[in-house]
Structures are given as C-alpha cells and as structure tokens.
Design a protein that fits this description.
Length: 139
C-alpha cells in the first residue's frame, strides 16, 4: 500500500515537472512527447487513486464504527453527495453565468430571465445538501 501511495504522490510531481519543461523549452518535437507523457501520467494517477480508494475506503469505513457498520458508508455518501453537487453547481453557474452576461450585453431587458437561470443552476448544490442532510438523519 505504501508503494501505491508513493506512486500516487510522485506522478503529479512528474506531471508538473513535465509542464514546466514544456513551458521553458518551447520545442515542438519534445512538446508532443511530453504531452503524451502528461496524458499517460494523469491516466495512471486516476487508476492509482481508484485502486487506493477501492482498497482503503472500505477498511476505514468498517474501522470507524464497530456497533453500526453502515455509519461509515453513510458519512461517505453524505460527503460525496454534497461535494459532487457543489462541483456540478459550480460548473453550471460558470456556464450559465457567462452565457447570461453575453445575453445581457446584447439585450439589457432580459436581466430577470437570466437571473432565474443562474438561480436554477445554484439549486443543484442545494439539492445535494438536502440529500446529505437526509442521509445524516438516517445514521
């Protein structure tokens, strides 16, 4: 497990170093090879994180509670529902907000409609928070 943890820490460092190498060299032939290396290292990093989570999270979740074995997974589910919905809401607000500003610059009379769409995008985070509160209420 220590080898997987070390590799998971070393790969982002190599990716950052390759990015600096591309930035400093400005060589087209090497840039293509380094970009392939960056893609490969990011994909390996994702696989290592998935393996790490697959083997480590069930052990942590079962070690946390001896009386109730589902509480660890309940906390994990609540955290994931809040986190993923917050990320999705951030992305939605970014896309809808930038489009709304572009539309308002063309027609200033549609400010109210664009605010409604941005509010709907923010509602995604509220739904995730409500789901996590419901999950925590069941634990």
């Amino acid at each position: 497990m220590y080898a997987v943890s070390f590799m998971a820490m070393a790969i982002p460092g190599l990716t950052v170093a390759a990015g600096f190498y591309i930035y400093l060299k400005k060589d087209k032939a090497n840039a293509k090879r380094i970009r392939k290396l960056v893609r490969a290292s990011v994909s390996i990093y994702v696989v290592l994180v998935a393996v790490f989570l697959f083997f480590l999270i069930p052990g942590i979740a079962s070690a946390e509670s001896s009386a109730n074995s589902s509480s660890g997974m309940g906390f994990l589910a609540a955290a994931l529902s809040t986190g993923i919905s917050a990320i999705a809401a951030g992305y939605a607000v970014a896309v809808v907000g930038s489009s709304a500003i572009g539309a308002i610059s063309e027609d200033p009379n549609i400010v109210g409609k664009t605010i409604i769409f941005v509010g709907l995008a923010e509602g995604i985070a509220i739904y995730g928070l409500i789901v996590s509160i419901m999950i925590l209420g069941k634990i």
